[in-house]
């Protein structure tokens, strides 16, 4: 027998759209509050975005004849992408990368850390959390060096630990390396989000679950999860988006060897900078945007089912 | 109903935006051609900026230091004597070449950017096509003034290609280099090979490699391949081999497609990497070229196809990246043979490839005349020699080369034996893509694909890049 | 203490140790390589020397780039935090039509657009605005890119500030601004602090935006300079890179420690009401 989640005492029932202007802000002031942010976002995000979409229907390049007189090629870039084996490859690798490192890796490790650290001694908790956070806040260029050194074929730490001198991890298993790397890099966000989410689970319910002898898994499923479902979804959405658009794989492998770790952002970079095909790279960026949109819509549907 | 009207409103908004944006791309057309090339010729106060992908304490530090600490002060001083007050700024970047190129192009497309800038020889064509640079005679205005510069006589015709496009001079070339086969004489001795080794065909390279293979822990031969090394694969791999089959990457306006010569090159790669004569992993690593340097210095690589840069900056005994204290006795060098004697380009027995950069003038500079003066000053014998700062390097000027290379047999070998037989890459806008396709083809072969399959996908990539009618094949 | 309990405890600590090692081991390099006589990619007990540190300090632009980084990133972090705070409060408390769609739309855009594809538009726009070679311009672009996610995260915090606080303050006759300053701000402070660190960290590592928009090397931030540390041959200069990486990491760590000790560092409101 398991306890049904009782309505949380003292917690205001979440009505849809919690907007109640309790501080008496008023619409005019609200718009004033929004204005600076919207202005900056409009100028430095929306405007370049629209422009990028426009470049996506041209054959624009930064050098060569097409730099002087780019012509509108309509959807040619998009049909090209649909038939581009390298783009398909990049898309597939991105799906793997997001599934492996964000949805599974960061999510599960982040939750496991949040769950176990709840009851750990403060000193242990601080050390572990500090390390996890450090991995997250170090600048990405620095982190890239750390991991290149870690995976190095000749003197790398991993090979010293495993006694596998001469294994070129980044060459032989590039995607596995990237997934491990990104799990290491990004777990902190999930850990923190889940730690604060878990505080919202009433201890009384956990206690009663223990009293009736529910197993750990049952407790998680029937008591904890209903409370943090929204957070799981928000977290998964954010880390999936960040991972899908993450550029740090480039710093580790440059997409290599032979495109084996070329995720979509890396592919866009290579097309735009190495190949100079800005029109095509803009079109791919737009496709990436659409893919992100689909993921977000799926998430919104799941979130709506919650309430 | 409401929905539809909202949609159509969106559509109107969208098309209006597209119209607005159409004006924002490619607006950089001509126009600069109408400018008076004698503008500000008599100015007493002049400001010039030199742009280069180098930085003190970082990438190409010596070049940046020379420009900032020697060239600029000397030029300012010389102009002062003429009563002109010149300020020259140095704008160094020191990042990856690709990002430097895009940054430079972004500035130039907005009619901005440094007055003089250095660019790779292979960018000259695409920059010229985009109108970012103009023939020197146009920018300076006076054809005689440009053509009569006495420096041109000192720069060999072949080297002048570095700054030229469509038969016109767009810039003054900087130094150049040449590619040879380096080999480790100590390993050669252990394998019973001669110290004055000079292969006459690819088969002789393979048989030497076979002999070296018997030595434990030694990679017999390393020829750059794969996409991880980028242009290094083309310059120290495919292209020198290709000219050894008699083909060039672009001839008679057509790019090389899936031809017997290309397949011959890919087969050679297959021989090397398929039978354990080369280390295929090294070729896939992002830092594979650096690693090959270190391994050569540690007596672990027998034969390495590299440029003279390897000799003067990598295994250089004092300051090299991978120092070899006994370089002068332990490192041998030989010309790269054609696949068979006489089978090379122009019927040559031996072949090579060279690269380098050039300095061009921004057509939108405020001071075209003064920029041309600075460009000549930069390439004068005195300054070119000073830029070496005592080091031996192959410069663009023959007079300087004869003087400074006398003491270095290897560089002298390149200047006198390699430069006459060398080839340069075409400075065409499509080149980077063709080069990438070549790299991909080697990656495919080394990765285990058949020569035919790799050559077929190469053909498709070249056709996509250059257009079907501009590719040769058979 | 049942044997099962003991086994579980041991298992628990083994797991903790494994996780700790997983996070700590890759970082060892930055602790050993900066002080090693011949720094390479391996991790070993260093052959102590301060030569590398001296070389880095002597580098003509290294220390200056840190100042540039600080200028750019402090501006960015403060702007992001301030504007995101205002916007998220308005979005949380006032009914604005199409709010959620707007928020998600922007979030999606921000994750895609800030990359390579938008480099031409951003460059041309900044060029027309006369903001090329300006550290302030770089901060503006980064702020625009970070704001949507910051608003998204911060709104979660503000949503969690119990409205009863504000209601009771209002009952006691406090003005709107007083409520914001004395009631909402203190409660939301951990959230603001977290966003500040987040924005700082994200702008600290950004390479492409400053690289393209800044011309003079003496205005470039550390993230750009780190890419220039190659030797004459073009290979990574391992006597400067480890020390610089270490120095370059200090500001973010210090900022985090400061914020964490004063406000706590977390990513969700979750205040119990």
Automatic annotation (TrEMBL), chain A:
Any Gene Ontology biological process: transmembrane transport
Similarity annotation: Belongs to the binding-protein-dependent transport system permease family.
Taxonomic path: Bacteria, Bacillati, Actinomycetota, Actinomycetes, Propionibacteriales
Cited Pfam families: BPD_transp_1
All residue ranges annotated as the ABC transmembrane type-1 domain in the record: 92-299
Descriptive protein name: Multiple sugar transport system permease protein
Gene Ontology CC terms: plasma membrane
Membrane topology: Multi-pass membrane protein
Compartments, record wording: Cell membrane
Source organism superkingdom: Bacteria
Family matches, as SUPFAM superfamilies: MetI-like
Swiss-Prot/TrEMBL keywords: Cell membrane, Membrane, Sugar transport, Transmembrane, Transmembrane helix, Transport
Transmembrane region(s): 33-57, 90-116, 128-150, 278-300
Automatic annotation (TrEMBL), chain C:
GO terms of biological process kind: transmembrane transport
Gene3D superfamilies, sorted: MetI-like
Membrane topology: Multi-pass membrane protein
Bilayer-crossing regions: 12-31, 66-89, 101-124, 136-154, 195-217, 237-259
Subcellular location: Cell membrane
PROSITE patterns registered for this protein in UniProt: ABC_TM1
Keyword check for Transmembrane helix: yes
Residue ranges constituting the ABC transmembrane type-1 domain according to the UniProt record: 66-259
PANTHER family membership: INNER MEMBRANE ABC TRANSPORTER PERMEASE PROTEIN YCJP, MALTOSE TRANSPORT SYSTEM PERMEASE-RELATED
Protein name: Multiple sugar transport system permease protein
Taxonomic lineage from the root: Bacteria, Bacillati, Actinomycetota, Actinomycetes, Propionibacteriales
């Amino acid at each position: 027998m398991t306890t049904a989640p009782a309505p949380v005492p003292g917690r205001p029932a979440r009505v849809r759209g919690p907007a109640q202007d309790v501080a008496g802000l008023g619409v005019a002031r609200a718009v004033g509050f929004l204005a600076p942010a919207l202005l900056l976002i409009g100028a430095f995000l929306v405007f370049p975005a629209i422009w990028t979409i426009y470049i996506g229907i041209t054959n624009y390049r930064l050098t060569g004849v097409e730099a002087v007189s780019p012509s509108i090629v309509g959807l040619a870039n998009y049909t090209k992408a649909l038939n581009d084996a390298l783009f398909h490859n990049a898309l597939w690798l991105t799906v793997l990368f997001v599934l492996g490192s964000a949805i599974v890796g960061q999510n599960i490790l982040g939750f496991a850390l949040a769950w176990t650290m709840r009851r750990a001694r403060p000193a242990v908790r601080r050390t572990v959390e500090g390390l996890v956070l450090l991995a997250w806040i170090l600048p990405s260029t620095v982190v890239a060096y750390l991991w290149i050194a870690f995976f190095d074929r000749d003197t790398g730490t991993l090979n010293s630990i495993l006694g596998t001198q001469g294994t070129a991890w980044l060459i032989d298993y590039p995607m596995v390396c990237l997934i491990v790397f990104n799990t290491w890099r990004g777990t902190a966000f999930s850990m923190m989000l889940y730690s604060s989410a878990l505080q919202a689970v009433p201890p009384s319910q956990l206690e009663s679950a223990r009293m009736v002898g529910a197993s750990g898994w049952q407790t998680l499923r029937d008591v904890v999860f209903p409370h943090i479902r929204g957070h799981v979804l928000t977290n998964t959405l954010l880390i999936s988006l960040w991972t899908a658009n993450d550029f740090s794989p480039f710093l580790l492998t440059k997409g290599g060897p032979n495109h084996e770790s070329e995720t979509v952002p890396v592919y866009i970079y290579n097309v735009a900078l190495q190949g100079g095909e800005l029109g095509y790279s803009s079109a791919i960026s737009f496709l990436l945007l659409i893919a992100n949109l689909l993921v977000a819509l799926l998430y919104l549907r799941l979130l709506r089912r919650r309430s | 109903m409401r929905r539809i009207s909202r949609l159509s409103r969106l559509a109107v908004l969208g098309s209006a935006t597209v119209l607005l944006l159409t004006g924002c791309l490619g607006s950089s057309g001509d126009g600069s051609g109408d400018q008076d090339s004698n503008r500000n010729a008599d100015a007493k106060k002049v400001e010039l900026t030199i742009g280069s992908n180098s930085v003190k304490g970082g990438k190409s530090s010596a070049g940046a230091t020379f420009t900032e600490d020697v060239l600029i002060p000397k030029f300012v001083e010389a102009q002062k004597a003429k009563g002109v007050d010149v300020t020259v700024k140095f704008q160094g970047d020191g990042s990856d070449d690709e990002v430097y190129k895009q940054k430079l192009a972004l500035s130039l497309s907005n009619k901005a950017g440094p007055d003089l800038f250095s660019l790779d020889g292979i960018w000259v064509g695409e920059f010229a096509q985009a109108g970012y640079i103009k023939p020197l005679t146009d920018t300076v205005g006076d054809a005689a003034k440009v053509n009569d510069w006495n420096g041109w006589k000192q720069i060999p015709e072949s080297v002048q290609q570095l700054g030229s496009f469509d038969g016109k001079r767009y810039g003054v070339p900087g130094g150049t280099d040449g590619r040879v086969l380096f080999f480790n004489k100590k390993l050669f001795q252990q394998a019973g090979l001669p110290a004055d080794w000079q292969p006459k065909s690819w088969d002789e390279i393979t048989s030497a490699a076979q002999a070296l293979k018997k030595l434990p822990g030694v990679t017999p031969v390393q020829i750059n391949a794969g996409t991880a090394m980028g242009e290094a694969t083309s310059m120290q791999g495919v292209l020198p081999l290709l000219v050894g089959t008699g083909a060039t990457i672009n001839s008679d306006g057509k790019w090389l497609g899936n031809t017997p010569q290309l397949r011959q090159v890919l087969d050679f790669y297959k021989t090397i990497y398929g039978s354990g004569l080369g280390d295929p992993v090294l070729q896939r690593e992002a830092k594979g070229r650096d690693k090959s340097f270190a391994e050569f210095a540690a007596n672990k690589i027998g034969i390495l196809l590299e440029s003279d840069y390897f000799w003067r900056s990598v295994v250089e005994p004092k300051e090299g990246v991978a120092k070899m204290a006994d370089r002068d006795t332990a490192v041998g060098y030989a010309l790269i043979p054609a696949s068979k004697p006489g089978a090379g380009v122009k019927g040559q027995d031996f072949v090579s490839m060279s690269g380098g950069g050039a300095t061009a003038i921004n057509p939108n500079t405020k001071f075209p005349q003064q920029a041309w003066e600075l460009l000549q000053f930069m390439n004068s014998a005195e300054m070119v020699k000073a830029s070496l700062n005592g080091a031996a390097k192959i410069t663009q000027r023959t007079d300087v080369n004869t003087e400074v290379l006398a003491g270095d047999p290897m560089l002298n070998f390149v200047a006198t034996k390699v430069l006459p037989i060398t080839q340069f890459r075409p400075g065409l806008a499509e080149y980077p893509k063709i080069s990438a396709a070549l790299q991909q083809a080697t990656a495919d072969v080394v990765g285990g694909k058949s020569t035919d399959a790799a050559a077929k996908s190469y053909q498709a990539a070249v056709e996509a890049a250059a257009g079907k009618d501009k590719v040769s094949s058979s | 203490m049942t044997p099962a309990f003991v086994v579980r405890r041991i298992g628990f600590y083994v797991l903790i140790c494994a996780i700790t090692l997983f996070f700590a081991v890759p970082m060892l390099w930055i602790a050993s390589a900066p002080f090693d006589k011949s720094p390479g990619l391996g991790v070993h007990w260093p052959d102590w020397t301060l030569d590398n540190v001296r070389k880095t300090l002597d580098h003509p632009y290294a220390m200056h780039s840190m100042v540039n980084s600080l200028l750019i990133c402090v501006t960015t972090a403060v702007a992001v935090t301030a504007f995101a705070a205002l916007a998220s409060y308005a979005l949380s408390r006032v009914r604005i039509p199409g709010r959620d769609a707007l928020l998600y739309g922007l979030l999606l855009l921000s994750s895609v657009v800030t990359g390579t594809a938008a480099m031409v538009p951003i460059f041309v726009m900044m060029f027309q605005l006369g903001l090329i070679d300006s550290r302030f311009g770089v901060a503006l672009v980064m702020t625009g890119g970070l704001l949507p996610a910051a608003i998204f995260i911060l709104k979660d915090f503000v949503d969690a500030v119990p409205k009863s606080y504000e209601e009771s303050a209002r009952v006691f006759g406090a003005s709107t601004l007083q409520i914001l300053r004395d009631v909402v701000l203190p409660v939301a402070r951990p959230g603001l602090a977290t966003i500040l660190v987040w924005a700082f960290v994200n702008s600290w590592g950004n390479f492409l935006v400053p690289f393209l928009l800044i011309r003079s090397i003496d205005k470039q931030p550390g993230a750009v300079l780190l890419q220039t540390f190659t030797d004459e041959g073009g290979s990574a200069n391992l006597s400067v890179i480890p020390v610089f990486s270490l120095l370059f990491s200090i500001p973010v760590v210090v900022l985090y420690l400061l914020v964490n000790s004063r406000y706590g560092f977390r990513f969700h409101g979750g205040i119990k009401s």
